[in-house]
Amino acid sequence: MFYHVKELQFNARVSKPDPKFARLLLEQFGGSNGELKAAMQYFVQAFSCKNPYPDKYDLLMDIATEEFSHLEIVGATIQMLLSGVNGELKNAAEESEIMQLLGGQAAKEGFIHEAMVNPHFGVLTGGGPALTDSNGIPWTAAYVTANGDLTVDLRSNIASESRAKIVYEYLMKFTDDPYVKDTLSFLMTREIAHYQMFEAALNTIQPNFPPGVLQGEPRYSNLYYNMSTGMDARGPWNDGTSTQLGETWQFIEDPLEHVMSSNGLVDLKPTGTDRTAAKVAKLDKSMSQIRSEEVKSATQEIDMQSSTYTKDGGIIEEPKKKK
Asked: Residue 248 forms beta bridges with which residues?
């Protein structure tokens, strides 16, 4: 149940109108890394983990709801940045006021030029925020990633928060308004906070690597192919021990010869690892049982009810089976 309070989470303010920056800020309203994308992504992900991971369900719903709050902050800021423009667009009988507001003929021509690039912003929305990015591309559910595996989804969320953070960082370079910068700084900092929350949640699921259930072939999990010539570099990504599986990286200097001599990798033997096909098969079976039981044990098959209507949201008692 959503309950809307008509005060913003952060006291968003604007010193003066700035239609050009308002357009840029649309990126965080209806863009691929924006607040609506984050809100919908975490909201959708929450459903599949409500029963097996009620603590993560709580986390995802809390952050999803906060992201809706951030969407409201961005929308309100865009509206304030368009103060004057949205009113003058309604003044169909007067042709000069908007030109004065935008700073003369040159500025008006610039605004018209931008409208040619993003006509929805200046022409279709009447001077208000729209669910598009800064170039007028409509928001789409294709921005949302929800794979139904919590270890995968949490990693997607960490990446989402990283991308949103850097967009706010870039946006701050395009405004001199101290009030707007304060708002962007708040929003950017919350991305940092959410990153850490998702990271901490991922670490409570053990084991959580590799993502999903199946463990992967030990013949191929520690191979680094030198697939480009010139300026070859060595580092912890291709030299030493791999970060998660603890295997020794095998640097393949000549990928073509490696493929040809191993019959297209079919005859390859595991090297630099103590993992074997038998060990992997055993782990695959074990992890499949663990993950499957986590879901099955928390899922009712009859008389299902999502809500408890108790203040603490306690677990509903398992219903008696029908005769």
From this structure: 241
